[in-house]
Write a structure and sequence with these properties.
Number of helices: 5
Strand order of the largest sheet: 1-2
Shape: elongated
Strand content: 5-15%
Low-confidence stretches: none
Structural class: mainly alpha
Number of strands: 2
Mean pLDDT: 85
Helix content: 55-70%
Length: 127
């Protein structure tokens, strides 16, 4: 009896998760790319504008985040630097979750993905 309840609950969870993933729009991949770009751009903007950050050579050992455009050596104890780097990490983590959801949709519902891509309305960027 108890095993049947656990099995039923597990199957209901997996069924709900599959339904959720399969109904995600295909633009979820684009949202992931936009989110990770937002984190990188905002972090670089903060590095360029914080007084505690100094530009260093790209191949220097002081270059902790070798991302375009350029490299900076920053005081990691400054509050605004911590906010910027945590926002960068948060955007990257959120984009990773969205990317995994996109891949899960492609794996779980490849027929739905093909159907959505074959429709001119759904395949267009504004669809």
């Amino acid at each position: 009896q108890e095993f049947t309840n656990i099995t039923d609950s597990t199957m209901k969870f997996f069924s709900t998760a599959e339904t959720f993933i399969c109904n995600l729009p295909l633009t979820i991949g684009a949202v992931a790319l936009a989110t990770v770009t937002l984190g990188v751009v905002w972090f670089k903007f903060a590095e360029e504008n914080l007084d505690s950050c100094e530009p260093v050579h790209f191949h220097s050992s002081q270059c902790t985040f070798p991302e375009f455009p350029g490299c900076f050596y920053c005081d990691t104890s400054e509050t605004m630097y911590k906010v910027a780097v945590n926002f960068h990490f948060g955007c990257s983590a959120f984009a990773g979750v969205l990317s995994m959801a996109f891949v899960a949709k492609c794996l779980l519902a490849w027929r739905v993905v093909l159907d959505e891509m074959s429709s001119p309305t759904m395949a267009s960027p504004a669809g």
